[in-house]
Write a structure and sequence with these properties.
Blueprint lengths: L21 H17 L5 E6 L10 E3 L5 E5 L6 H9 L8 E4 L6 E5 L1 H7 L4 E2 L3 E2 L4 H28 L7 H27 L10 H14 L7 H11 L18 H4 L16 H9 L2 H8 L17 H10 L2 H33 L7 H27 L11 H46 L1 H46 E2 L1 H13 L6 E5 L5 E5 L12 H17 L11 E6 L7 H20 L4 E8 L2 H8 L13 E9 L2 E7 L7 H10 L8 H15 L5 H5 L4 H10 L1 H5 L14 H17 L3 H7 L7 H10 L2 H9 L18
Parallel strand pairs: 3-12, 3-13, 5-11, 11-12
Antiparallel strand pairs: 1-2, 1-4, 6-10, 7-8, 9-10, 13-14
Helix pairs in contact: 4-15, 5-6, 5-15, 7-14, 12-13, 13-14, 16-17, 17-18, 18-19, 20-21, 21-25, 23-25, 25-26, 27-28
Organism: Brevundimonas diminuta
InterPro entries: CR006_AAA, P-loop_NTPase
Protein name: Protein CR006 P-loop domain-containing protein
Length: 814
């Protein structure tokens, strides 16, 4: 029907901001709000849903949660995901839940997973306090009270002890340290310009600077100097000083000078002299030429010297001329040349390295000239050696390089001496700086001795108190463990599963579910099974509605107890997700009533149930379960929150509301009546639809009886407003659109009001129009100003009904 439509009232919510850190949102909307609104109860404060199911957009955060939380959303919008995150946060690593005081409670969740998991061959029995003696019950209560008292003491002591970032002694100690760091930083700010060198490594950190102050205060025993004297010395000692330098590589001739006097260089290397051709070769002095040509002499080939056939005897004599002694001298020449080449190369390389090394104590131009001079001598000698190799019979004398080498070596040695002096000076500067640094700290500590002593004394008191409270906390935690063991043992002695099965069966019978019931089962009768009257298994033959109702009743009693013999008195939170999806209106009512009991216990805060979440897509169930006479209009109570979950495309989002966001079409019709800027064209049809819904669809009414209460024109107007009732039409297509001016509309509104008053339903009119209760004086005032219809009502003295009627009213008793 048209009046069954609903709408969401959307409000802005800071908790939707994905850029706001979750921990900060907890502080802004969780701990502080809950603490002031419902005391110290342990609650689930914040829920962050991210990257799971249809929540793959920006993180959705439910924050500032209260004892009662209503969540409305259509099927498939993402409600069950919320219940699953609460039930098992560990299974959703991208999601988070935050508990007040970081103390999680037992979480009981009713959703499709619960139904699937528990509707099996057997249900685990629900233990509750059975029909035991008052003494045994009192013992359980005493033990439970002892556990609660210890938990409270632990919570209080933990609060007094605190953490570094919260209230408590630890926080006081942290604040003391923060203040002292600020005082120490003032030292740095005052003296940094002159003593920056003494503060090296700690100039950018308050914490490190403070630590250094405390260390120096404990060990400083150096002489005490004035600040002015220390500033003067600091100007010199902490001035710009070059870094240590690496010594230059000293060039080494490595035996190169010895090669200059090798005898082979001065020796005329010639062949054997007792050969016939030796005299000729000696007289001509061309042994080197003959040796070179002999390499081309081959048997049966022209002579390389005269181009005539080569005589074998001559070839033999030439070969014998260059004997083994000759070859040995040639090899000696080659060795000298190779050694000179190698050693001179290394010498020049080391000299070049010294030249290339940056050093302020080296005259690079002068050293370069010396190295070039040495290189020139070496190059000349290499040419001499090459000539000796090619002309062994010619004596050669190498150019001495000793002077050039010594000059290069002296320049490098002089630079190294200066480098050594430089490094020694730097080493002394480090010592001076260390000494001056200690003396500076001694002065600064002396000047702040009083504040340092005050901090150390106060910190010592905090340390002692924190240590003492820590030991006390450990002791109470041990006592709590023992007390919980005692409570568990007592609960096992007085709990039973039978009261639960009796209560469930009684509820089933009272609502007409007589074809099945629960029986206890198992060796110890700690399970339930669903059976027919004859004892046969009924589990597979129940209807969807029956199965839904029995599993909800099982869950409801589970909330009151536990599936083990102990734990019945444990604090808990309850999550209920769509419990009425397959139930008729009668069962919906009892489910709503049972849930309201849970809501009342959570709101009261004195029972085991500390918090309840109700998720649904059913408008009527939502209206029923959220109805509360204490609520001002539709504004949320301090103990409750309202949320809607919407899915657009494949993306779910959460929205918090400061009022109940779900409104029926009937309410929207009344809202149009209340609106001063209402449409003159459609208002008459709005009035007709309200009267049709209230007087006919919900209860039936005699049209003539109502119309007969009016006279004249007002009777005609009343008849037109009830025109649909006789027509039996309930479609929008049958709406009557009659042009009317504002005066006519006012007349219709007056008759509309009179209809409710004359039928003794004025209270409903006042409620829907959001008017205060009428008094006799107000009624008289209204009568004097309203139209003739209202005047006739006042003259007739028709009483106004009292009492409260729900937004979706029951059928009137006419």
């Amino acid at each position: 029907m048209a009046h069954n439509r609903h709408r969401f009232q959307r409000t802005s919510c800071a908790c939707r901001d994905p850029e706001l850190p979750f921990a900060r949102r907890r502080r802004l909307f969780g701990r502080d709000v809950v603490k002031t609104q419902h005391g110290g109860a342990d609650l689930l404060e914040d829920i962050r849903i991210n990257q799971t199911a249809t929540y793959h957009g920006p993180p959705q955060v439910m924050t500032g949660l209260r004892p009662v939380n209503f969540i409305f959303g259509t099927n498939g919008s993402g409600k069950t995901t919320i219940s699953r995150v609460i039930a098992d946060p560990a299974a959703h690593p991208s999601c988070e839940v935050a508990w007040k005081k970081d103390r999680p409670l037992l979480t009981l969740v009713y959703n499709s997973d619960f139904t699937t998991r528990n509707y099996g061959a057997r249900l685990r029995g629900v233990f509750t306090l059975g029909d035991t003696s008052a003494k045994a019950i009192a013992e359980v209560e005493t033990a439970r009270k002892a556990v609660e008292d210890l938990q409270g003491e632990i919570t209080t002591l933990a609060g007094v002890l605190g953490r570094d970032d919260t209230v408590g002694r630890r926080a006081e100690r942290a604040m003391l340290r923060t203040r002292f760091e600020t005082e120490c930083w003032e030292i740095k700010a005052e003296h940094d310009a002159h003593f920056a060198g003494a503060f090296e490594g700690i100039r950018t950190s308050k914490a490190k600077f403070c630590d250094r102050v405390l260390v120096e205060a404990a060990r400083s025993t150096t002489p005490l100097y004035s600040v002015d004297e220390l500033k003067t010395r600091a100007t010199v000692v902490f001035g710009d000083i070059a870094a240590p330098m690496t010594s230059l590589i000293t060039p080494d001739e490595n035996g190169l000078l010895e090669l200059e006097t090798d005898p082979i260089l001065a020796k005329k290397v010639v062949g054997k002299e007792d050969i016939d051709v030796a005299g000729l070769i000696k007289r001509l002095g061309n042994s080197d030429w003959v040796r070179q040509g002999l390499a081309y002499a081959q048997s049966e080939a022209p002579c390389p010297f005269c181009q005539k056939p080569l005589d074998d005897a001559l070839h033999s004599q030439l070969t014998e001329f260059f004997d083994e002694a000759y070859d040995a001298d040639i090899a000696a020449i080659a060795r000298v040349e190779a050694a000179y080449q190698d050693r001179s190369t290394r010498l020049l390389a080391s000299a070049q390295t010294a030249l290339d090394t940056p050093c302020t104590y080296v005259d690079r131009n002068a050293l370069a000239a010396l190295v070039d001079r040495l290189a020139a001598h070496i190059a000349l000698n290499l040419r001499h050696l090459e000539r000796k190799r090619k002309e062994p019979s010619t004596p050669v004398a190498l150019d001495p390089i000793a002077e050039a080498y010594t000059a290069v070596r002296a320049a490098v040695d002089t630079a190294n001496v200066q480098i050594a002096r430089h490094n020694a000076l730097i080493a002394n500067i480090k010592t001076e700086r260390a000494t001056l640094t200690n003396e500076i700290w001694r002065r600064l500590i002396e000047d702040r001795k009083a504040s340092i002593l005050a901090y150390s004394t106060a910190k010592g008191r905090h340390d002692a108190a924190i240590e003492s409270m820590g030991k006390a906390l450990e002791g109470k935690q041990d006592k709590l463990s023992q007390a919980m063991s005692v409570l568990a043992a007592l609960e096992k002695g007085v709990t039973s599963v039978k009261p639960t099965v009796t209560a469930i069966n009684a509820t089933l019978t009272s609502f007409g579910f007589t074809s099945f019931k629960l029986n206890t089962a198992g060796d110890k009768e700690e399970f339930y099974e669903i059976v027919r009257g004859d004892g046969t298994d009924a589990r597979d033959t129940l209807s969807e509605g029956e199965r839904c109702f029995v599993t909800f009743l099982y869950f409801y009693h589970l909330v009151q107890g536990a599936t083990t013999a102990s734990g019945v008195t444990t604090d808990r939170i309850v999550v209920i997700d769509d419990p009425v999806s397959s139930l008729d209106s009668d069962v919906l009512f009892i489910v709503s009533a049972l849930i309201k009991r849970l809501l009342a216990e959570a709101t009261d805060g004195k029972g085991r149930i500390k918090q309840v979440f109700v998720l649904t897509h059913n408008i009527y169930f939502h209206k029923e379960v959220t109805f509360d006479t204490k609520r001002s209009q539709r504004d949320a109570l301090k103990s409750e929150t309202f949320w809607t979950v919407r899915k657009v495309g494949d993306l779910s989002t959460l929205q918090r509301h400061e009022t109940n966001p779900i409104r029926t079409g009937y309410e929207l019709l009344w809202e149009e009546v209340r609106d001063p800027s209402r449409s003159l064209l459609t208002i008459q049809n709005v009035l007709r639809r309200i009267l049709e819904h209230y007087f006919t669809i919900l209860g039936g009414v005699d049209r003539d009886d109502i119309v007969g209460k009016f006279q004249g024109k007002d009777q005609m107007i009343c008849g037109s407003l009830f025109s649909w009732i006789n027509d039996g039409s309930h479609n929008f297509a049958d709406d009557l659109y009659v042009a009317a001016d504002s005066a006519t509309v006012d007349r219709y509104l007056a008759v509309f009001k009179a209809i409710f008053y004359r039928s003794e339903h004025g209270a409903h009119y006042r409620m829907m129009m959001k008017l205060p209760p009428d008094t006799a004086e107000q009624d008289a005032h209204h009568a004097s100003e309203q139209t003739e219809a209202v005047e006739l009502m006042a003259e007739a003295g028709l009483p106004a009904a009292d009492g409260h009627e729900p937004d979706m009213p029951p059928a009137p008793a006419l």
